[in-house]
# Entry
Amino acid sequence: MITSSETLYENVATKIESLIEQGVLQPGDKVPSVRKVSIDHGVSLTTAFQAYFLLENKGLIESKPRSGFYVKFSKSKLPPTPSIIFPEHSSNEVKIDEMVSRVFKEARNEKNISLAVASPHHSLLPVAQLNKAVTQSMRKGKGKELGYEMPPGNEDLRRLIAKRSFDWGGHLHHDDVMITFGCMEALNLCLRAVAKPGDTIAIESPTYYGILQSIESLGMKALEIATHHETGVDLDDLSKALEANKVAACLFVTNFNNPLGCCMPEENKKKLVRLLAEKEIPLIEDDLYGDLFQGKKRPVNAKAFDKKGLVLLCSSFSKSLAPGYRVGWVVPGRFKERIERLKFMTTVATSTINQMALAHFLENGSYDRHLRKIRTAFQNQINFTTQAIIKYFPAETKISRPQGGFVLWIELPSTINSFELNEKAVKQGVSIAPGLIFSTQNKYSNFIRISCGLPWSEKIEQAIKKVGDLLKQQIGKLN
Amino acid sequence: MITSSETLYENVATKIESLIEQGVLQPGDKVPSVRKVSIDHGVSLTTAFQAYFLLENKGLIESKPRSGFYVKFSKSKLPPTPSIIFPEHSSNEVKIDEMVSRVFKEARNEKNISLAVASPHHSLLPVAQLNKAVTQSMRKGKGKELGYEMPPGNEDLRRLIAKRSFDWGGHLHHDDVMITFGCMEALNLCLRAVAKPGDTIAIESPTYYGILQSIESLGMKALEIATHHETGVDLDDLSKALEANKVAACLFVTNFNNPLGCCMPEENKKKLVRLLAEKEIPLIEDDLYGDLFQGKKRPVNAKAFDKKGLVLLCSSFSKSLAPGYRVGWVVPGRFKERIERLKFMTTVATSTINQMALAHFLENGSYDRHLRKIRTAFQNQINFTTQAIIKYFPAETKISRPQGGFVLWIELPSTINSFELNEKAVKQGVSIAPGLIFSTQNKYSNFIRISCGLPWSEKIEQAIKKVGDLLKQQIGKLN
# Structure
């Protein structure tokens, strides 16, 4: 009975949400009364109330005392998205490590509210279930949980990851999968397998600073490609860049690029794979955020169109399940042997018990249920954060509309230096990620990334207000 | 009462063991009867029997039905140690990865008895206690066990590692320590911090193949230094090599080099540190086996004499406690900041729960108790393996006398190609590590390394016999 009534109130909520999204109901509009909903839809008053609480939790409506519910937020009424910057097609040495270290030294200080670090808060994770999976693995392990699990890694876990490939259009065998210490180790191994120091890697602009740091630490160069808010990498820009430069590999976050949150359409992924296959250029596909889609269905991966074994797919459980387990994987295609060896030489093997526990958790099928829950949580947190930015930041502020993941990319008035902004914010106990660390070309200095990984709270709203106040002060001074 | 009687029988056993070690009692000699021991030492018959069982467990005596106990094995009657080879002082490209992969593909096949892989069997590890430590950490963690534990890593664990530095002559602060994914990640990070592709690293000859693979994968070169069975690196040879070559760093296993099991005397470590400090050459000190000494006390580390922050100490819990946890550490000296950043770029952070559990285990003080136990087990396994090699291998065989760790380095008749020997042995279900993979100079082709990490059993004795039979066949053919 609970299940059917849940469906009922969700149904009602979805209808009203769609009216809001389409702009039929606009911010400030009163929504139909609970009584009216109850009568019109033939549901109980309780059900109607549940529907409205759900919408309130999503940050879409708010109740006003003695008056009823009003629309608070509509995606149809958002500020424009940040500008697309077409980067120069030059192969650049990367030198952002110093800056990133400076930013994150403070961002990781537990006293500060970190809007800089893109990590899900543990209250959003299935702690009890995972701990139970650890306990059960130890019971089952009979001592083997202390032994090495040599590359390619735990077979059960690899099989379960291969099984999930169906969701993104793949049909992997477990021997196609190798377990790594998170997506970061996977990306590092791939870079080392397909390129050498001095080689050029094509990346999105902007792109995750960790990718830039890896490229820097391996003595490789970066070539930035224009990337759109809706459709990701600009394929024409990529084509031109590949004509003008010798590129050893591309490293793209095809689903929900961090920081943009964009997703390449299926057709573009097909074209991308075809283009690179013609030129025999490997594609390292970072799919870290693929399961955290906001739409109706999980996007397909470029790997699904790979016929030559040239796509190296990387991902992990760090953004959705257990950051601290440090378990990720790579589907290395034709570079399998090389990557298995590099893994052994670098970290020998991935932690055994962590792999066992994740296999146990996935086997029970609770991962999909958890993913539904955490996607909703991220969506709600993005809604609330967006609203707070609109409310507290200067009017010219532009905000991304991520199609997945949980970060926002924000363009501030052009006079703002976001690196300095962060240093000021840190003094007030808040950290943000300045745009400069997402590129090699000294662009995005008036951009910031804000993570929505923390459950929404008054404290976070106040943190965003502090940043907004700093911005307004700075603009005031300049005018 | 139990404790005092334990001490009693151990005392008696130690006296007899010393008679055997000094050669007063020789293999084949009858040892005093249990009754005589009981009367002479004023102990009960039970205590006398316990003493003899202990010596039997150590492989030193054996009982003959209706006759009594006889000396079976004495270290005073061992074959000579393998030859020391003075390598050429040339900086070599490393190309052993292919060969190592071929060897260990088979060595890791669970159907084979692996005398090749140097890893403690899980029956030698404190499984129940570690599992309990995991459970307690999860209870205490309240969800934080799923979050990132950013570099430098878990503070409790770092403090406990710093505390243990007293054992090797150090006095570290926990901020001097950074947690890594095992010793292998620590070594890799150190190499990357102090040298770049093309640079030369001075290493021991022979040295652990994993170190050679790392150097190879990073595009660096290796310069081999002669290494003695008793005293480790030959400092004169090192001096000469440093005169003739530009060396970016030394990477030495100062305590119980794998495969030799040698230990540099304290005086040599002092000289080594002084020599390298004069030339401003960093020393990466691999202390993976330091806690697994066979003598009376733990050897001092070279790090203890480091005044300039030029010694980078690396170690882990993989050989003594929990290989599969993949938890090690580095004491990076003046390279701290660079190494912390490289760690973040490569694997972000070390697994949280694994660090918590080890901190919990160390806090309880059960580590030292466990170490005493596992050291005895390794010593016994080394004794039994040595005896079996003497029994089954050709008479010319030479065997190392490891002062710590749990591997044996064996020189076979010069006509033997140990790589081929291994391929033949694998067909019979046994794997060994051929000498060629421990050097870049195509030396040691008639050497093998045998691991004594598995509890002694009839099966292992038979495995050694199989290798011995293959050797004898091959020699027979050649003669």
